[in-house]
Amino acid sequence: MSGPRGVSEAPSRAGAERCAMNDERAGDGAADDGPAGETADDGTADDADGGTYTLLCELAEPASITVGALGEREFAAGWYAYTGSAFGPGGFARVERHRDLAAGERTARHWHVDYLLGHPATRVDAVARTPGADRECAVSDALSAADGAARVDSFGASDCDCPAHLVFAPERETLAAVLAREHAAWA
Predict the structure, then answer these.
(1) Are strands 71-75 and 51-59 parallel, antiparallel or unpaired?
(2) Does the residue 181 lie in any domain?
(3) How confident is the model at residue 126, as a pLDDT?
(4) Model confidence pLDDT, tens digit, residues 82-99
């Protein structure tokens, strides 16, 4: 596979343990407010309370991007899924902030993913959400386990023991199929 430099295939043992803890705390990860396939960004699903989200993004051409303290990174053209949590102030409003940045309506970069989203060849294709559940590590693990997918080392996982929360795949469907299975709301 020709993926980005710094990809890894498997989660660390400590990352897997954190994922297990999060899954146990969150139950089965299914939300009570709707079935899979429900529109994720309609503003009705517990926005202020937050939960776990995944941005599915396309990078239309290869790019060299400086990612804050991670430094210069090479990104292959293809599809990227970034999984994060939105339990802080504003909950899922964080997703809109990410979309605004990708659309060029914001410039401030706070998280690793902001540097990828701020590149002009990147677009947010879809967002998946699971309100009220902390499934960040488990969703990232499921994405990285898909055939043809690989993590982008150290990207987006500075607050846990996972190797990364950004996953690359050359084809959209590789990541989209996992997101439809792992998140309660998918659009």
Answers:
(1) unpaired
(2) yes
(3) 95
(4) 999 999 889 999 999 999
User: Does residue 2 form part of some domain?
Assistant: no
179 vs 161, higher pLDDT: 179
Its pTM stands at: 0.75
- Domain assignment of residue 47, given as a range: 7-186
Confirm whether 66 is domain-assigned: yes
DSSP string over 18-30: HHHHHHHHHTT--
Q: What letter would DSSP give residue 38?
A: B
Q: Specify the number of domains making up the chain.
A: 1
Best CA proximity match to 184, nearest among 129, 116, 114: 129
Q: How many helices (H) and strands (E) does the chain have?
A: 5, 9
* Integer Rg of the chain from CA: 15
Smallest CA-to-CA distance from 133 within 78, 52, 77 is with 52
Q: Which two tokens stand for residue 45?
A: 């699903």
- pLDDT above 90: percentage of residues in the chain: 50
* 20 belongs to a structural domain: yes
